[in-house]
Design the sequence.
């Protein structure tokens, strides 16, 4: 399963008892393409059956991060053409997320640097999720007119209190301690020790190797903010969440309200509904199927095309959302994003 082309976007290799998967698009912070999804899926399925592979390790090339997410430029271009390519990409990507979650061997992800969106899907469903002092973990979709996917709603719905709702709506990036608090990571290992840990995985059982290198992470921030976060985000609607954020009297809460005002009103309302529905999803696969409905509907919403334009294409950071206000997004509008896709439903 080793691809010999050094320019390939995924480089699988074997070292001792470990199979290494290197995401290899460093200039794009290893943003995920459909080809990469295919290569990862193919390799993981082969290694699951290979008795010589005891552990799988996922890393990213370059110094900036594991994976900045899906290739949202390609998603935007697909949306402008009707969306068929993006829908096919998500179908395969979400099935890959489910495969990682139920992988029969230890799956170790080095969540070093930027780990966002699709990068969370490749790592946070693994069995041994390693964060470092450089980790920045986020689901930032509301800022581009989209909604958390790749099983992100399932993970965030299971974070303590309303922390997951806060991260889903704001897209805030968290460090090592807060990623662990929210259930997105397991262990902290200093970045300078990752190479040593990777070396040990070639000869040692995965949990034992990680135990050898893990340390206590630097202090996080979310624990100190739990009181206002849990109070504000327990409100039933986005409008009431904003009212509580303004009323609570905390500078951090007020800053959060200002942050939310810049997000897509449609995305905020759909995301809140998606996370709350995901709380009762029996399995990750159920949540992924729900996310697939939402993602496909987002392809036909003006905000996804506009959000990616503003953040990534033109980079003017001035999206013109449509509808422009929360009041204009009604309950029926939100419900439309969750409608059954019939023959196009995501299955596993």
Sequence:
């Amino acid at each position: 399963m080793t691809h010999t082309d050094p320019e390939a976007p995924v480089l699988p290799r074997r070292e001792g008892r470990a199979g290494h998967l290197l995401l290899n698009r460093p200039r794009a912070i290893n943003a995920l393409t459909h080809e990469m999804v295919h290569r990862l899926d193919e390799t993981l399925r082969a290694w699951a059956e290979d008795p010589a592979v005891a552990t799988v390790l996922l890393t990213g090339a370059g110094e900036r991060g594991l994976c900045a997410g899906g290739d949202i430029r390609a998603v935007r271009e697909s949306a402008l053409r009707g969306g068929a390519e993006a829908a096919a990409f998500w179908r395969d990507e979400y099935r890959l997320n489910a495969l990682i979650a139920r992988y029969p061997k230890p799956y170790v992800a080095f969540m070093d640097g930027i780990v966002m969106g699709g990068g969370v899907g490749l790592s946070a469903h693994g069995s041994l999720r390693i964060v470092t002092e450089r980790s920045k973990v986020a689901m930032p979709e509301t800022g581009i007119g989209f909604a958390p996917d790749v099983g992100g709603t399932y993970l965030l719905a299971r974070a303590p209190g309303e922390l997951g709702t806060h991260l889903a709506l704001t897209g805030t990036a968290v460090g090592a301690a807060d990623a662990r608090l929210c259930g997105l990571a397991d262990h902290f290992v200093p970045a300078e020790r990752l190479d040593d840990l990777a070396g040990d995985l070639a000869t040692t059982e995965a949990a034992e190797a990680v135990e050898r290198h893990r340390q206590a992470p630097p202090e996080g921030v979310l624990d100190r903010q739990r009181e206002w976060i849990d109070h504000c985000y327990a409100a039933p609607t986005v409008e009431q969440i904003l009212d509580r954020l303004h009323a609570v009297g905390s500078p951090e809460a007020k800053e959060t309200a200002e942050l939310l005002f810049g997000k897509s009103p449609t995305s905020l309302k759909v995301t809140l509904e998606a996370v709350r529905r995901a709380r009762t999803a029996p399995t990750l696969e159920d949540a992924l199927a729900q996310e697939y409905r939402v993602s496909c509907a987002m392809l036909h919403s003006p905000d996804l095309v506009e959000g990616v334009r503003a953040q990534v294409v033109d980079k003017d950071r001035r999206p013109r959302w449509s509808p422009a206000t929360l009041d204009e997004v009604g309950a029926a509008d939100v419900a439309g994003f969750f409608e059954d896709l019939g023959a196009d439903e995501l299955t596993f």
Notes: The first helix runs from residue 34 to 48. Residues 1-348 form a domain with the 2-enoyl-CoA Hydratase; Chain A, domain 1 fold (CATH 3.90.226.10). The two ends are 24 Å apart (CA to CA).
